[in-house]
Amino acid sequence: MWGCIFAVASVGVLSMFIIQYRDWIDWNKKFIYRVAPGPCKQVLTEGGSEDITYIGNDIVIISSGIGEGEGEGVIKALDLNTSQVVNMTIRGAPDRKDFMTKPHGISTWKDERGEMYLYVITHPLSEDRIEVFKLKENNILKYKRTITDPLMVNMNDLVAVGRDKFYITRFIHYRDKPLNMLEIVTQRAWGALLYFDGKKERPVVPTGLSIPNGINISPDQKMIYVSEFGTKKLLGYHRSEDNLLTKAWSYDVDTMVDNIEVDPDTGDLWIGCHPIALRVLDWMMSGFGLTLPSQVLRFKMEDNMVSSVEEIYADDGSELYGSTAATYIKGKLVIGSITAETVVCEVNYLSPSPTSN
Q1: Quick check: is 104 catalytic?
Q2: 1-32 in b/e burial notation, b at 16+ Cβ within 10 A?
Q3: Active-site choice (104, 123, 238, 274)
Q4: What is the pTM of this model?
């Protein structure tokens, strides 16, 4: 009798897991309806734009080459006035073959004198690093230093909050690919949020996260936003004076949220997303070569909390293969991808932000 009960219970638990896992990988999502805020065009067709950020003067900078080989990554600059994309020149770079390997998340910080610094996550085979540059005129980056730390493993994104001070997401625990893919597929919550104080890194939340991805900060510097890729949630954390984080809220999105850009005027969040999880897993595992669709969501914020969400852009992968980041500047939407295109769209209409009322 007890054996029969155990067998029935086991079948029930297994069935629940299969149903939950089927929903998580979006097994039933077959089509993506194309949505555009206006005319769109590709301004970059190869190399990708894994992360993007606006630095003013109609210039967007791009980390490109995460899918390329050793030392082949670059930082690009997009001029929104001309739609021209150029490679930024790095001066004073260290003599390392693996310098600028697989550039990933980027963040900028401006000091009291108006000098702007760029922080770039890179992934050489030996270790993860953060390369630090000072932005100069004429698309020049002056190399300043390389930051490493034993906790800097499988880094995804960062947000600078001071000179050589930043919060960072550790995507997964294992560096070895078979193990990290097993970790992702089985939805282990072994990712982390970390803070680097200029000398060393430390965890700033007590529990692990499920594949934390993008990270950014509110205009008032009081709230840290994190994309929890594995749970399809956007998280908000209160930031304390000692830079520890306390979870304030969680918002279910039902899409895999990637990098986060914050509108400095309205506080709204612009996030590149992956609407079909199965396609992302297929790309990560170099599986069947399925088309990777794209999506951009605008999170309208009020008092640093989500008030509503708008879908601004969606594509089946034919125009943009796997959206990772998006930023809105003066009526234009710039959208990045993992390893392929960068798209710029004219935005003909947006509903008002709560902060503009």
Answers
A1: yes
A2: eeeeeeeeeeeeeeeeeeeeeeebbbeebeeb
A3: 104
A4: 0.94
